[in-house]
Design a protein that fits this description.
Elements (H helix, E strand, L loop, with lengths): L1 H24 L9 H4 L10 E6 L2 H17 L5 E5 L2 H11 L4 E4 L5 H11 L1 E7 L5 H9 L4 E6 L3 H8 L2 H9 L1 E6 L2 H9 L7 E3 L26 E7 L4 H14 L4 E6 L5 H11 L3 E3 L12 E3 L6 H6 L3 E4 L12 H5 L4 E3 L7 H10 L2 E3 L3 H13 L1 H17 L3 H10 L3
Parallel strand pairs: 1-2, 1-4, 2-3, 4-5, 5-6, 6-7, 8-9, 8-12, 9-11, 10-11, 12-13, 13-14
Helix pairs in contact: 3-4, 3-17, 5-6, 10-15
Length: about 425
């Protein structure tokens, strides 16, 4: 019954969604979303496919790791990947190129998902992390197409919300043949909202298994040599001002300190650029080599898919979404590169990982911009401490590897 009520609300909201999608269809090519794909109008597949769905960049990276493993074993697999955002789309295209077919995800209307299934002919759907669409799951189950939730995460806050609509949550959980949770706490939360014990597997987090890329020295910004650099990664509205205040305090004690700011969403690049200019810091943009010079104080990371390069030239990392109630972002990438990790107090999206890193000494939580400036300054003045923190963070990553092979093994059992 709740699914029908949800569908009626979705239909009523559809005109607003259409306006949003039409607006996006007129954006520059790198942000453009084909409107027809949102309604399931995609190329017809000549043979059965394996469908992967990822929301944005983080989920896309995990999907890429799985797909590469599968294709290494059988390069004849017909794989389709859907993403919700242009950021995720670019990540798939950069990571897999022509090896897969990409579409934007269809909206959650019965007619749309039926059309999409007819055209793509999936024999299996792998959903990354926690993207639960009632009509998707209902019609996939109805057509006896197995669905796997890979790298499954469910925060306590989300679990409590799903418990309020338990009958709908239980119906969605019943559509999965397996839920591969990143840890035992997440597995228990999925069970609380209706997942059967026999469908639950604790696989670990695939993101621990990403390869450590090799970089040229100072590849991201070659103008900085021997200056101490810290990065504020994946910042949200309301955080950039605090970061710039912290950097002002850091520079008062470490005059040659440098900062990289990488906003989480590309539509905020211009806004953050104006903010940096208003503070009086000399600024450069990663996308504009003509602005580069050794004397730049703040570098705006206004490109996509280059976060690891930015982490690589940074001595200290701070993860955004943690000074505002976003819940923090993934700290695994800087930890893999043996960088010390700093975070604000809001970490509920990655609570278990952050807690493990903090307990090991590889990460540190700060309450506000003043404390952030103090910690960054201390690490810059004591580089050996920063190196020690980074080494501890890297050890936690090594200890948690292995989820990718477990996940691929489960997926192969349904092919």
């Amino acid at each position: 019954m709740l699914r029908y009520f949800y569908t009626v609300l979705y239909i009523l909201a559809a005109p607003l969604l259409c306006v949003r999608w039409v607006y996006k269809s007129f954006k520059p090519p790198q942000y453009r979303e084909p409107l027809r794909e949102r309604f399931g109008i995609v190329r017809k597949e000549q043979k059965e496919s394996i469908w992967f769905h990822a929301v944005s960049m983080g989920e896309s990276n995990a999907a890429i790791a799985i797909i590469k493993k599968l294709l290494a074993k059988d390069d004849t697999l017909n794989i389709i990947v859907t993403t919700t955002t242009p950021t995720g789309a670019r990540q798939i295209q950069n990571g897999l190129g022509g090896k897969v077919t990409h579409h934007y995800s269809p909206c959650d209307l019965p007619g749309t998902i039926k059309r999409f299934l007819r055209r793509t002919r999936p024999k299996l759907l792998v959903i990354m992390e926690t993207e639960l669409w009632p009509n998707w799951l209902h019609h996939l189950k109805q057509q006896q197409i197995p669905v796997i939730l890979a790298n499954g995460r469910l925060s306590e806050r989300s679990a409590q919300k799903y418990e309020k609509v338990y009958s709908l949550a239980e119906e969605m959980m019943d559509a999965f043949v397996k839920v591969l949770a990143v840890n035992q706490l997440d597995a228990e939360r999925f069970k609380r909202i209706g997942l059967k014990e026999r469908k639950s597997i604790v696989s670990g987090n695939i993101k621990f298994d990403i390869d450590v890329p090799s970089f040229r020295d100072h590849e991201y910004y070659p103008e900085w040599n021997n200056q101490p650099v810290w990065i504020a990664a994946s910042t949200h509205k309301g955080e950039d001002e605090l970061i710039l205040k912290a950097h002002r305090q850091v520079c008062s004690r470490v005059p040659n300190a440098r900062l990289i700011i990488v906003p989480r969403h590309p539509e905020r690049f211009e806004q953050v650029a104006r903010l940096i200019e208003e503070t009086g810091f000399k600024m450069a943009c990663r996308s504009k080599p003509g602005s580069w010079s050794p004397g730049v104080h703040v570098l705006l990371g206004d490109t996509m898919g280059e976060m690891m390069k930015a982490f690589n030239i940074s001595d200290i990392t701070w993860i955004g979404g943690s000074f505002v109630e976003i819940g923090g972002h993934n700290p695994i990438e800087p930890a893999i590169l043996a960088k010390p990790v700093l975070t604000g107090p809001h970490i509920f999206n990655f609570n278990e990982i952050f807690c493990e890193l903090i307990e090991s000494g590889g990460a540190h939580m700060v309450g506000d911009e003043v404390e952030l400036a103090e910690v960054v300054t201390g690490l810059m003045q004591n580089p050996s401490k920063a190196v020690e923190m980074g080494a501890q963070a890297s050890q936690i990553i090594e200890h948690n590897r292995g989820a990718l092979d477990k996940t691929v093994s489960v997926i192969e059992s349904y092919l």
